[in-house]
């Protein structure tokens, strides 16, 4: 029986309608795109770059445009952002792909850094929710896998560029007190409202639903310790016993800087804040995390000193620069021995960091007041690194009872490490460290060059690994790495910091993983250095072959000169002097002989008289 055409077309129409309804249910938000500006800053210059987020049916993956090229940290930030947006959105389809692209950059053709993470999270969420966002606001801040927002640098430059491009609001997480103080000044000068929050949901509410972010009047201290924060094993604390003194030295500098802060209504809350910070530092020291406490004090010393300069309104950049130059000149580098090589290398590294920061900080008279704040803060980093370098050199001197090392035997190893690092993809941070490593190499500080290159290698490698890791894979890797002990001094130092990152109130697993990888690679590098180590024999006193050859020639010259003088004196005594004396004493001058005899008789008479009187003389 023939089918009716009407029934056939009705069936097709019904099938099509069913498909459309099914598509609507399965892909409710798997379409559309959003574009929003981000601020890109390089040095003092910058501008806007637009980021576009587009949804399309697929398999639930993230894709990026090829140009401009994005660094690993940017790729990882985008991954975290989209994944977290999927978690909090009620309308995300797991089969929806997200495409991310950037417009032409205002400077260069390479975008790097994680500071776009919070903005891309908001954009992705809005895309999944099919919502629009306001266009008068710049967002900056990293995003972590758990959705918390991390601080970023260069806030002064970013806020200034945002204001110059007509933005009304600038959203950033709270980073530190110094930036809080300076951002307040920037807000008044450039008429841009600074909103600070570390909660992604508050930013979403503001950007999508126009809900206000309450202005934080003053920052309040948030403790990082919890009842789950445990101490590292006693055996590991003992390995870092000398580092305990380094930590106390840095805390002393921090206290000195805070005591110099004027106490008034503007600074009262700052004093309260840092006093709370120092109480926690004491608790961290008691737990045995000496490097963590030292690092906190290091950063606080920089921050408090900069705040003091800001409130004094008397920033003399040249004077501060001269102070740092004087500090660097005062560092006395100990001889590198088998017992202190890691301390010497640590001092060399921080001297290199301080020198690099000093040379890269602009201090011209044309700087704006806010730019002087940033320049002073930069010089304070150089200042603090110099003080740490001095402390490490003092510990190295205290442990200098070993055998001397010929550091030049590490030259080839340093060359190989630098060549290996250059093959990797670098972030701005690792690119900077690699450049310093090359300068250290040029200064024949091969040990420091190896360790600095190890940092760049470890961080770049860890970033690539994190990019492809699932949460379960990361947890498994952390479990293995945290159970492994380290042998080198600096391997143990950074392992302890990684353990703190895992054990604090809000664990930072990504940072902990990077530090564990670095500690592991430090052990490997120091092992390679030990294998290539050459001890300088004591009898040579560490002098190289050319110097020894010169000393031998000098000794030979002295011997020849002495022999010639001896021959000359002998010739005079044997041949010249007898003839001269013979003519003098063999003359017919009898008066002279009588006087000579008379003199002898007088001396004999005095001697006899002295003896008979019983007196004597002592000389």
Written description of the protein model:
The chain has helices spanning 5-26, 72-88, 117-128, 155-164, 177-190, 200-209, 234-239, 241-259, 268-287, 290-312, 317-330, 341-360, 369-398, 411-422, 428-442, 446-468, 471-483, 489-503, 509-531, 545-585, 590-613; strands spanning 33-42, 45-57, 62-64, 69-70, 96-102, 110-111, 137-139, 142-143, 149-150, 169-172, 193-196. It has 619 residues and is an alpha/beta fold. Among the domains are: 26-209, 2-Layer Sandwich (Ribosomal Protein S5, domain 2); 405-537, no CATH class. Residues 1-29 and 581-619 have low confidence and may be disordered. Helix 8 (241-259) packs parallel to helix 10 (290-312) and helix 8 packs antiparallel against helix 13. The protein is globular. The N and C termini lie far apart (152 Å). It contains 21 helices and eleven strands. The chain has a four-stranded mixed beta sheet. Strands 7-10-11 form a three-stranded parallel beta sheet, covered by helices on one side.
Query: Number of helical runs?
Result: 21
C-alpha geometry: globular
Q: Are there runs of 5+ residues with pLDDT below 50, and where?
A: 1-29, 581-619
Strand content: 5-15%
Overall mean pLDDT stands at: 84
Structural class: alpha/beta
Question: And the CATH topology of the domain at 26-209?
Answer: Ribosomal Protein S5, domain 2
* Spatial order of the strands forming the largest sheet: 1-2-5-3
Tally the beta strands: 11
Fraction in helix: 55-70%
Report the major sheet: 4 strands, mixed
